[in-house]
Structure formats: C-alpha cells, structure tokens
Amino acid sequence: MTKELFRENSYLKSSNSVVTAIDGHGIQLDATVFYPTGGGQPGDSGWLEPTEGGKLRVVDTIKDRNTGELLHIIDGNPNAISVGEKILATIDWDRRYKLMRMHTAMHILCSIIEGGVTGGQVGEEKSRIDFDLPDTSLDKLLIQSEFDRLISEDHIVQHRWITDQEMQANVELVRTMSVKPPTGTGKVRLLEIAEVDLQPCGGTHVARTREIGHIRVGKIENKGKHNRRVNIHLEDYD
Ligand SMILES: [Zn+2]
Question: 40 CA distance to ligand 1 centroid (A)?
Fold first, then answer.
C-alpha cells in the first residue's frame, strides 16, 4: 500500500518516490503527496519525473474501487517509466492550495449552518454543500459575516487520529449523513478547527483559518423539500 504523506502534512509539494506498480495509465508509488479523489475533494494533478529525464503529466489521482490502491493517472506513455524506478513526484501546488483553502472553508460553513450534510463538492473557485434543512430562511448576509469573522479570527486547524472505538462512542461528531467516516483500518482521522468545528475528515486543509482568504457566499438554492444548497466562492486576497 502507498504511504500517504499528505495525511500528515498537507503542505508537502513533492516526494522522491519509487514506482511499485504500473496498471495501464495508473501508476503506483511507495509513498506520495498526491491526494486521491474522495470526501468531495478532487484528486491532485501534477508531474512524475524519472531521474533519467522526461516528465509525465498526472491528470488525476484516484483510489481503485476494487483494490483500494492509490493510482496516479497519467496522460502520457506508461512505458516511459518502469517498476522499481526512482521518480520525483510533484503536485500542481497552485491548484491544491486553492483546494485546501476551499476545503477548510467547507468546514467553517458546516459550523455556521445547523443541519445534516447530505452532499458537497470542493472546487478551486466554487464549492457547494447540501444541507438537510426544512426551513428556507437561511440568511445569506449572516452567513457571510460569520465567514468573515471566523476567517479573520485565525483559528488553528489541525488533525489527530482516534480509534474506531472512540469514533463509535462519539457518533455525534459525524456531520455527513450520506458518507460514513472510514472505519475498519482501526483509526479515524479527525479534523479540528479550534473552537469552531470537529469532524472526521481525510482531506487536505490549511493550517490557520486566515489562510483561506476571502470567501464570498453565493447563491442559496432550494433543491427539494429538505435540501438547501449553499454555494461559496474563493476570491483572491490581493
Ligand atoms: Zn476536511
């Protein structure tokens, strides 16, 4: 199994890794900084560079549904590299950093709005969360001012691991109704925004809320009787 370096440090941009398997256009490494699609966050893109030269573009990163293996999907010729070869694996950091800012903003949105989360999608510029809420009176201005406050207060964001048993004893932590936290490996990763939000999450986040920059609350849509979709936009800070 690939060592998932991004789970411990989301700021790692590259790693010196060894190719462990090649399956069509899916490349496996012994360790990686590439985040695979999951939890509403898209997989990383970037580059694999063999020491012998040449550069392969990674267009997506996924977990194989059947084997659970982490695959770097390349759009070039897989014969350009071979198993056992050393490569430099580098993510598209500009894109990932936006996704980290956005993903952290999603947690803040969860803390502002009461209600179970039924879906969500993190994007580089636009993200959305669906809440299970019967009332249609979400106050956009209030949500915006809460965002501004929680970001400027610069709360610390960090993760920690707990056991499956501790998770089961604290099921109220789970905000996502459609996605169960990953259990079975013996441990669960919790993401905490100090004094703001705590929930199981395997994604990548920034270290402090001020790094998110400016979030603009967009359209609030009614998607069915109990479904309120809140859209947010990432606006660059300079
Ligand atoms: Zn998260």
Answer: 9
